[in-house]
# Entry
Amino acid sequence: MTPVTTFRGRSVAVFGLGASGIATAQALLAGGANVIAWDDTAASVEKARAKNIETKNLREIDWSRIAALVLAPGVPLTHPVPHWTVGLARNAAVEVIGDIELFCRERKAIAPNAPFVAITGTNGKSTTTALIAQYPAERRARSCAWR
# Structure
């Protein structure tokens, strides 16, 4: 795991405690952030507590002390309607980001000139990753025209 240090010493709310949300909370904690996490499912909250992640209903926190809300990938930011946490964060002028944004910020902080490839979607990620791995490294470096 790469610790996320860009929020060191600040409080971050994490909503959505499936595999991605728990990994996000752990990376933030490893980087020195204060994490308050929650999920609408009691079993997910218990799973986070078992991993020593502080949990608290985000309806009950002081949002003026929160630097960012990190939403797990399955939590709606906009469609069909924003999740209730988004409204609370926006009312407090707290930025709402995803786990990929944390990765991008950390990459910028520790290796700003390193090229990277992001592969997303429902189908074809493994195949695409394998094809990229087969592409010669020297050609990959030259062909990264956009970032």
